[in-house]
Specification:
Helix content is 78%, strand content 0%. The protein is an all-alpha fold and 312 residues long. The protein has 2 domains: 137 residues, no CATH class; 150 residues. The chain is elongated, with a radius of gyration of 26 Å. The relative contact order is 0.13. The N terminus is likely disordered.
């Protein structure tokens, strides 16, 4: 399991020299893993600002849902919501698979999933007078919220925003991170190695328990953050003492500290992802089962709303 790499080799008495190329690759890999998270955080921030602006405009009183502007905003929002079906249709209709890439269609699906609700909010002016309008708006809100949840779960089991689906075997290999070399380098930092082993065992227990122990599962990220902070601090203190004893230059000491910090952070992140992967994969499959009927409920309520508006 995730904690086995620490028991594979006998402790050495010195810290092995670190290869510059391996260090650069490791740092590049760590940065590559951070970039998707930063992009997603920035995207969520932009979406939140757009919805805040849409709500402010809708409540401004500049127009009504019955005005010409309000009417065409509703039409545009309805078309955007209907166009969301292009993505699942492409996956199931062989003739459409040759049109564009999967990445393009997924990006379009996400964009329409944001644009549609924004336009509907602007159209409604958040003044829901009739029962059918209230049901349609509530259905759209539930589906949009479901889409955000689905995007979060998608990101936990895929590599990057539009990345391919990761496998448990790949994550376990990543968690091993050059196990023999890692054990050798941590040999003189006994407390750090002990803390990493403890976290690996905790993560393994969380993996086995799954959703039967939700608190253990949900707090694993916080525990990883605390473990990283403690391990990096302990490693820094130990390396400073070692640098003083062996006469390292300040530059050499700082480089060693940076490498160990990257090592520790990458290992903890990989072990955490291994432990949470199975649960997120299960939740994503359940989300699919729930999301489809919600979408059909939205379509039916939207059709009822359009018919009622044009008949009465």
């Amino acid at each position: 399991m995730a904690n086995r790499p620490f028991a594979t080799t006998a402790p050495s008495t010195t810290i092995a020299p670190l290869h510059a190329g391996a260090t650069t690759k490791r740092k590049a890999g760590a940065n590559a893993r951070r970039r998707p998270a930063r992009r997603e955080t920035a995207l969520l921030g932009v979406v939140a600002l757009l919805f805040a602006a849409a709500i402010a405009i809708a409540r401004s009183g500049w127009y009504t849902a019955e005005s010409e502007l309000g009417y065409w905003l509703g039409v545009a929002g309805g078309v955007a919501m209907l166009a969301l079906f292009a993505y699942p249709l492409r996956k199931r209709w062989h003739a459409m698979r040759e049109i564009g890439s999967t990445r393009f269609w997924f990006a379009l699906h996400m964009s329409l999933g944001i644009a549609g609700p924004l336009l509907i909010i602007l159209h409604s002016t958040l003044a829901l007078g009739s029962l059918n309008a209230t049901i349609a708006f509530a259905s759209m809100t539930v589906v949009a919220a479901s889409g955000i949840v689905g995007r979060y779960l998608y990101g936990r089991i895929h590599n990057g925003l539009y990345g391919r689906r990761e496998t448990l075997a790949e994550l376990r290999a990543q968690a091993g991170i050059d196990s023999a070399a890692l054990h050798s380098k941590l040999a003189l930092l006994g407390p750090v190695e002990t803390r990493l082993v403890e976290f690996a065992r905790l993560a393994e227990a969380a993996e086995r328990a799954g959703l039967s122990r939700p608190l253990r599962f949900m707090t694993l990220g916080v525990r990883a953050m605390l473990a990283r902070r403690w391990c990096v601090g302990s490693a820094t203190r130990s390396l400073c003492k070692l640098a003083e004893a062996q006469g390292w230059t300040d530059d050499k000491r700082d480089r060693r500290i940076a490498v160990f910090s990257t090592f520790i952070g990458a290992y903890l992140q990989a072990v955490q992802r291994v432990a949470q992967f199975g649960v997120f994969e299960r939740l994503f499959s359940w989300w699919h089962v729930l999301h489809v009927p919600l979408v059909f409920m939205l379509v039916l309520s939207a059709i009822a709303h359009v018919v009622a508006v044009h008949m009465y």
